[in-house]
Design goal:
heterodimer; A: alpha/beta; eleven-stranded mixed beta sheet; two-stranded antiparallel sheet; 17% strand; B: 142 residues; Alpha-Beta Plaits; four-stranded antiparallel beta sheet; 6 helices
Chain lengths: 453, 142
């Protein structure tokens, strides 16, 4: 046979038993030509453009799923960071734009649209400040809109004024969506070194260097890696890294095929394949379980950071071999609410916020889907964001914070969103005060490594 | 041979160019027919690299019993699918069968063939999957 019997069975096992799927095909659409002095005209242009490009997005993705036998879990859209083309808008006008994005997303049949964003790593325009101030109400009055703000970069340092502003926005969003376990915060990401071609919402946006429209794909596959590790049995770490690499290579190849075919069907350019291992709450689809299969008693044990570093490194090496179009965030995700292994580790008291932070130094993408007590002070949240940004800025990598100060909840309680967002136990946060530091304001200067000329 | 939209468009443009705007219906019909007959397959491959092969991998497994191969191949024949290769393994009570088939000559597209084979799978109480071969080529070949 042209294909070995075992090769075909391996692929079938990946898709049918090990939950290999394409996590997302995300269409990036530029809205830079939609600005008008009249907000109603602006909103109409935005709506029309998203519908024009996106109307067949779901249909075509489903056709490709059927043809190749690989599920595509999410069909989504990202847009130009809204603050950029609409910088003359005021707060209430930005909220109107958010509602327009929400309606367009509903009408093309997708669950999330990302890009309600601002990039303020060095300073902010008046429009950017208005957009940031509008985030709580925008997220509270929409279902599908996702927001992100870049507050730091290796080139510019950390904008602490923006960090504090975002901590306030997060607290306000938690309060305004308290009737749904503060779900607005699950759609709000604060970045350092945000990337322009991220296909994974909530932090996606269509960067200004991207083309008019593009199709990016994010793969997945923790279940496939987990089974490969278990099957490898007792081998040394070098061999284990090799096993992981070979597995990631194959699923990256499949991911790129799917992405290119969906792009082709839409008649738009293919952009990147993001090779991140993104877990879901489903059994067997857990990064936490991978780390345990590597030999840790539980996530949070000494050795966890090292194991994750090796996993992430193997993912990157395999991805680069498999594709010339690797981009986005590309690494292992360690969200608490979306990974059953992580949830259990937190519940068992084995995984702390501090250990999670250490882990983010060696993986993508940062502190993700972490629920904390609702009464956590603004300055404490700002301190968490500043710490995470520092890891990104100093190491020239992307880090993010998607954190949920669950309104009215305390350590041991849960937030539960169902579906892919999952549920998260409320984690303990140090009660030491950071307000003196945060309230100094200003910008933490860029690090030495920013001088690359 | 499957005629893609690209090929149709190409033939149309060439025909119009040759015959001019005053051509009658019959002239157009004859020109198109002769163009299709003389079309070179290699040209198609070179100019339409995105033309997908019609090769599909059928994978089937379940509890072994008489008549499975016969039922599957009969259904494939009825749907105009050409079997290029077939391999089967039996392990205890279970069988696994893999076929490489070509659906180019079939009047049905892949999703329709998938639906038909799903009925066979339900009748026989086995699993049948059909996937375009590119999945396997991309994953297992560089």
């Amino acid at each position: 046979m042209q294909y070995e019997f075992e090769e075909i069975l391996e692929t079938i096992r990946m898709t049918e038993i090990e939950h290999f799927d394409i996590r997302t095909v995300t269409m990036g659409i530029s809205l830079r030509d939609c600005s008008d002095r009249n907000i109603k005209v602006t909103c109409q242009k935005i709506y029309d453009k998203i519908i024009r490009y996106g109307k067949n997005h779901v249909k075509y993705a489903k056709e490709i799923e059927a043809q190749y036998g690989i599920s595509i879990a999410n069909k989504r859209v990202s847009v130009t960071p809204i603050s950029i083309p609409f910088d003359s808008c005021k707060e209430e006008e930005f909220v109107e734009i958010a509602r327009t994005l929400d309606k367009a997303a509903a009408d093309i049949g997708i669950d999330y649209i990302a890009g309600y964003s601002a990039l303020v790593q060095k300073g902010m325009t008046n429009g950017e400040r208005e957009l940031i101030n509008s985030i709580p109400l925008a997220l509270a009055s929409t279902k599908r809109v996702c927001s992100s703000v870049n507050v730091a970069s290796t080139k510019t340092g950390i904008n602490i004024d923006a960090v504090r502003l975002m901590a306030e926005a997060i607290k306000k969003t938690a309060e305004l969506t308290k009737d749904h376990d503060s779900i607005g915060c699950a759609k709000l990401v604060v970045f350092a070194n945000a990337v322009e071609d991220n296909p994974f919402v909530a932090g996606a946006f269509h960067g200004v260097s991207e083309p008019e429209v593009v199709l990016n794909v994010g793969i997945s596959g923790p279940g496939v890696v987990l089974d490969a590790i278990r099957e490898a049995g007792r081998v040394d770490l070098q061999q284990l890294a090799e096993v992981i690499k070979k597995t990631i290579f194959k699923i990256t190849r499949a991911g790129e095929l799917i992405g290119r075919k969906v792009a082709e069907k839409n008649g738009i350019p293919f952009g990147i394949v993001d090779i991140s291992l993104a877990p879901t709450p489903a059994e067997g689809d857990s990064i936490g379980d991978i780390l345990k299969a590597m030999g840790l008693e539980d996530v949070g044990a000494p050795g966890t950071t090292a194991a994750l570093a090796m996993l992430n490194d193997a993912v990157k090496k395999a991805g680069l071999m498999a594709s010339s179009s690797v981009g986005g965030l590309s690494g292992a995700f360690i969200p608490v609410s979306e990974d059953m292994g992580m949830i259990r580790a937190v519940q068992n008291g084995n995984l702390t916020l501090e250990k999670l932070e250490a882990m983010t130094a060696v993986c993508s993408v940062g502190l993700d889907m972490i629920a904390i007590p609702g009464d956590t002070p603004v300055e404490t949240i700002a301190g968490i964001i500043a710490d995470e940004s520092a890891i990104g800025v100093i190491n020239d990598k992307t880090t993010a914070v998607r954190i949920i100060p669950a309104f009215g909840k305390v350590v041991g309680d849960f937030v539960d969103y169902g579906g892919l967002l999952g549920k998260a136990p409320v984690m303990e946060v140090k009660k030491l005060c950071s307000s003196g530091f945060i309230n100094r304001g200003g910008r933490i200067p860029a690090p030495m490594r920013s001088l690359t000329n | 041979m499957k005629i893609t939209e690209d090929i149709i468009r190409k033939i149309t443009l060439e025909t119009i160019e040759e015959l001019g705007l005053g051509a009658t219906k019959d002239e157009i019909k004859n020109a198109v027919r002769s163009k299709i007959e003389t079309m070179n397959v290699d040209n198609i491959d070179l100019k339409n690299k995105s033309l997908d092969s019609g090769r599909v991998i059928l994978t089937s497994f379940g509890l072994n019993k008489p008549g499975i191969v016969a039922a599957v191949t009969k259904a494939l024949a009825e749907n105009g699918c050409d079997i290029l290769d077939l391999s089967q393994k039996i392990m205890g009570d279970f069988f696994t069968m893999i076929m490489i088939i070509d659906i180019t000559a079939s009047p049905k597209d892949l999703s329709e063939v998938q639906s038909e084979m799903q009925k066979v799978a339900e009748d026989l109480k086995i699993k049948i999957y059909l996937q375009h071969e590119d999945v396997f080529r991309f994953m297992h070949r560089i």
